[in-house]
Amino acid sequence: MQHVSCALVGAPVQTGASQAGCIMGPDAFRTAGLESTLGQLGHTVVDFGNVSAPACGNSNHQNDAIHHLGNTIGWAKALEEAAYDAMRKSHLPIFLGGDHSLSIGTVPGVCRYAAEQGRPQFVLWLDAHPDIHTLNSTSSGNLHGTPVAYFIGLDGFDGIYPPLRHRVQPDNICMMGIRSVDDAENAFLAQHPIEVHDMRALDERGFAAPLRQFLERVSAANGALHMSLDVDFLEPTIAPAVGTTVPGGATFREAHLVMEMLCDSGLVTSLDLVELNPFLDDRGRTAKLMVDLCASLLGRKVLDRKTRSY
Asked: How many other C-beta atoms are found inside a 10 Å radius of the C-beta of residue 49?
């Protein structure tokens, strides 16, 4: 793989989730050796530190279940600017979460940069959940469930979340690993041409064929590809450090295959690593696995893998 410049951008946000702990995520990635691991692969790595964001905006909503709305708006604004800036200064920004509400800011930020380059923005969403709730449809009130609905431009965010400069076209999104979807999200997915591969479909077809087809579409369009990797994409027995565990996720080899195929494609232009909750981890095993997956994305081969004892 060609050596690139990587920008690490910490997003210690946890107010989009129901369980505390994701605030420690960025430093757990650092402690697990993300910077040195990528450096050993020949990449230039610059740590931009952690973004900070004051709460702002209207913190009230007609949906009484919603919590920390003002905090989420503040993070969205700060991370949109941070993501756009990181795209301008590096080949590959890596956003260290933090819960998945950080994508309310990062995806619009990278999308703005792609639009300035005349490139369509694509998104690969690796997650147990589609996160396509609107502010009106969420029953949990956890705003980490709203980013996709927001950045594809669904109704209900105007005047509350920051105005979208550019939205992601729904047919430019591929979701893989989905296995926990409620009725409202199913309805939204049925109404929009998002490519969804749930775990039943992936059990039948495998990961390689649908991912290869999606990557061919990205390449043909000269698209920018943002990958958003949620810890709960993975089988919880190998990645316990997440507050939204759903059994039946991607195995160790399936996850590495996805990363290796993405590496071969050379198409990924930005990356979210989200929902790591070190408070729930076992001796850092989830953080280390996520760093290993990032290494596979950036050029580590199967034959280079070292034996590890926990």
From this structure: 10
Whether 275 is catalytic: yes
Give the whole-angstrom CA distance, residue 169 versus residue 163.
16
Active site residue 204: no
The one catalytic residue among 35, 275, 281, 292 = 275
Q: Which of 43, 68, 100, 197 is catalytic?
A: 100
- What does the pLDDT read at residue 29? 98
SS3 at position 226: strand
* Per-residue pLDDT reduced to its tens digit, 225-236: 999 999 999 999
* Domain annotation for the chain: domains and CATH numbers: 5-300 (3.40.800.10)
Picking from 139, 65, 156, 71, the residue whose alpha carbon sits closest to that of residue 105 is 71
Report the pLDDT value the prediction gives residue 158, as an integer from 0 to 100: 94
- Is residue 43 part of the annotated active site? The answer reads no
Residue 310 pLDDT? 54
Smallest Cα–Cα separation from 34: which of 280, 303, 298? 298
Q: Which two tokens stand for residue 91?
A: 């080949």
Catalytic site includes residue 144: yes
Integer Cα distance of 55 and 159 in angstroms: 16
Question: For the purposes of burial, counting CB atoms within 10 Å of the CB of 285, is it exposed (0-12), middle (13-18) or buried (19 or more)?
Answer: middle
**Residue 232 bears catalytic tag:** yes
Active site residue 230: yes
